[in-house]
Amino acid sequence: MSKKCEDGTYIVLSNGGKKVLRGVRKNYGYFVSLKGYEVKRRNGVTEDQVIKYNQRRFVKGTYVGVWTDEDGVTYLDRSVYTKSLQTAMQLGVQNEQLAIWDCRNGEAISVVNLG
């Protein structure tokens, strides 16, 4: 049985023909989720489920985000990374996101339309 996947950002790699998750940590920059790729799970997700999600909803150059809200609902999504706050906000608006992830401070920032 696959182990539970913790909240975080991941890429999926091949290791001897087997798919494995690798956590991604950035010291600066922003992750922005893409519209239309979100999946919700009520009881968390396993690493195998994240790998399957990646195979079914693969988008080149993106990451898999896993996060759990205060009600215990776990979300899987596709995210892009950018070093620019302005670009992150523009992408957030384009993808109808409520927030982006600030890697330096380890927190969500509400999306605002910078016009």
What does this structure look like?
- The chain has 115 residues and is an alpha+beta fold.
- It has one domain (8-110).
- Helices cover 17% and strands 38% of the residues.
- It contains two helices and eight strands; from the N terminus they run E-E-E-E-H-E-E-H-E-E.
- The chain has helices at residues 47-56, 85-94, and strands at residues 8-15, 18-23, 30-33, 39-41, 63-68, 74-82, 99-102, 107-110.
- Strands 1, 2, 3, 4, 5, 6, 7 and 8 form an eight-stranded antiparallel sheet that branches.
- A hairpin with a 4-residue loop joins strand 7 and strand 8 (107-110).
- The protein starts with 7 loop residues before the first strand and ends in a 5-residue tail after the last strand.
- The mean pLDDT is 92.
Tags for this model:
115 residues, alpha+beta, 8-stranded antiparallel beta sheet, 2 helices, 38% strand
Q: TL;DR?
A:
The chain is an alpha+beta fold. It is built from 2 helices and 8 strands; from the N terminus they run ββββαββαββ.
Q: Give the terminus-to-terminus CA distance.
A: 48 Å
Query: How many DSSP helices?
Result: 2
What percent strand? Answer: 35-45%
Query: Main sheet, how many strands, which sense, barrel?
Result: 8 strands, antiparallel
The string of secondary-structure elements, in order, is EEEEHEEHEE
